[in-house]
Amino acid sequence: MIVRPAVFDSGHAVLVGKSAATESPDSLPPPMKNIMRSINRGSLVVLTLALALASDAMAQARPAAPRQTATRQAATPDQGFWELGTDVGFALGIDDPRSLTIMIPTGVLRAGYYITPVLSLEPQLTFFSVGQENQTGFSAWALQLGGLYHLSPDRRQNQIFIHPGIAFTGGSGGSGPISLSAYVGMKRPMLAGRLAMRGEVGLVHTLEDGGTPASTSLAFILGWSVYTR
Predict the structure, then answer these.
(1) What residues contact 155, with CB distance under 8 A and at least 6 apart?
(2) HSE value, Cβ hemisphere, 13 Å, CA-based, for 38
(3) In the chain, how many H helices and how many E strands?
(4) Burial class, 180, CB count within 10 angstroms (exposed 0-12 / middle 13-18 / buried 19+)
(5) CA 139 to CA 127: how far, in whole Å?
């Protein structure tokens, strides 16, 4: 009788263990397959929602960039352009004796130059001369220095402005009295801000000069303006 030694097949055991560890999902029973598919789909949905929430949080945390609309840019005028126009007006003297002066037109061509979008310088110069044969001629001039300060730079909307001024007068008879004025007015735009109707109301105070007493008048001015830009 021949006794043969028993051989332990360790390689089979390893092979069996390896096959069990690397078994593919296709070899799983049908219930396990359904469970694995549900887990995979659920993981994909959770990952998609997490990415969407992270993207939304980053967008909200990012500072918003300043935006300027084309309407606002167009409504804000630049500096360095002219406002030209003329007026009609009348003045009511409130001192004794009372007086009324009507000017249609005033005989002054306004020319205001904008040094900022809300501030314009508007000097005025008038001159006239009268001559007659065998008679002494007469001339007079008036120089007014003034400016307009607008409460808004948007000339496509109604604009309220303040108009202070000082006027010097003179002529062939020598220098005349000095006048101080203060007006409050409003501009009503036309043609998308290229034209404007303009109204003002204010007080004009003429200082005493030699034998001429001081006087104060309530003045009203109505006119129109055209902008060079």
Answers:
(1) 75, 77, 187, 189, 193, 196, 227
(2) 6
(3) 3, 10
(4) middle
(5) 7
Can you give the residue ranges of every domain in the chain?
A: 10-61, 80-227
Tell me: the pLDDT tens digits for 39-54? Answer: 555 555 555 655 665 6
Output the CATH code of domain 80-227: 2.40.160.20
Extended strands (E) in 78-214: 82-93, 99-103, 109-114, 119-121, 124-130, 138-150, 159-171, 174-190, 195-206
What secondary structure does DSSP assign to 33-50, as a single string? Answer: HHHHHHHHHHHHHHHHHH
State the pTM of this model. Answer: 0.64
H or E segment and range at residue 61: helix 30-61
* CA–CA distance, 68 with 9 (Å, rounded to integer): 83
Strands 82-93, 215-227: pairing is antiparallel
